[in-house]
User: Which sequence fits this backbone?
């Protein structure tokens, strides 16, 4: 929805190239950890026809089949641990219905997902953050969903690193879910992480980086893949213009 609204707004502005760059800089500054918005803005500022392309990019991300891929790949009757309310994984759990969901609360989103799952008769339990390790150890699979991704890891909801680390040490499978528009070129990825670090102390963040080494598989629009850097190859062109901040 955020990509659609942004694409609609930019298309209606009819900006000159310099104005488009400034607008896109401000968008990623306002939403520094939204991979899809970095992807959208990078694609627009490097396109010869950005306003025409904006609609196609919006359609492309809305047609993402990642939730379908998760639903098809989930083991029958599995107990799955997720963090917060992951868009794709949450939709897949709703579609399957036979999965037991342990939902670790993150940013007060866990309870909302649990209520949504229970309304469609999915066995779901909200887990306080202090119970993350216990929940992971009761699970057959941990799913960590990326807000953005780079060649060496992902940015996900706070609490994801702890869940992935416990699963990794306990040899429980960890899927990194990386939907469309989330895989960024390395310079843009590093800029995102730097801005995140500069914003506030790490313990006050609402998101955190999770290293690729903790994943046993990458779930993408193409399905389940081995967890190597090629699975996180950039989807958008490099846009050096976005690495600078706009003058406010």
Assistant:
């Amino acid at each position: 929805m955020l990509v659609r609204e942004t694409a609609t707004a930019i298309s209606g502005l009819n900006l000159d190239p310099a104005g488009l760059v400034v607008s896109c800089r401000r968008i990623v500054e306002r939403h520094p950890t939204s991979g899809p918005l970095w992807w959208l803005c990078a694609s627009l500022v490097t396109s010869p026809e950005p306003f025409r392309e904006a609609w196609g990019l919006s359609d492309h991300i809305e047609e993402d089949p990642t939730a379908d891929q998760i639903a098809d790949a989930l083991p029958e009757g599995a107990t799955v641990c997720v963090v917060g309310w992951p868009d794709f994984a949450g939709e897949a759990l709703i579609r399957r219905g036979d999965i037991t969901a342990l939902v670790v609360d993150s940013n007060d989103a866990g309870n909302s997902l649990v209520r949504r799952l229970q309304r469609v008769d999915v066995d779901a339990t909200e887990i306080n953050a202090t119970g993350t390790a216990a929940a992971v150890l009761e699970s057959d699979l941990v799913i960590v969903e990326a807000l953005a991704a780079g060649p060496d890891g992902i940015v996900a909801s706070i609490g994801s690193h702890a869940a992935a680390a416990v699963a990794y040490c306990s040899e429980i499978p960890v899927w990194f879910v990386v939907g469309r528009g989330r895989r960024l070129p390395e310079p843009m990825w590093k800029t995102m992480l730097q801005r995140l670090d500069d914003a506030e102390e790490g313990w006050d963040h609402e998101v955190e980086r999770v290293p690729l080494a903790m994943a046993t598989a990458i779930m993408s629009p193409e399905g389940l893949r081995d967890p190597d850097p090629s699975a996180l190859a950039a989807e958008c062109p490099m846009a050096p213009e976005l690495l600078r901040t706009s003058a406010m």
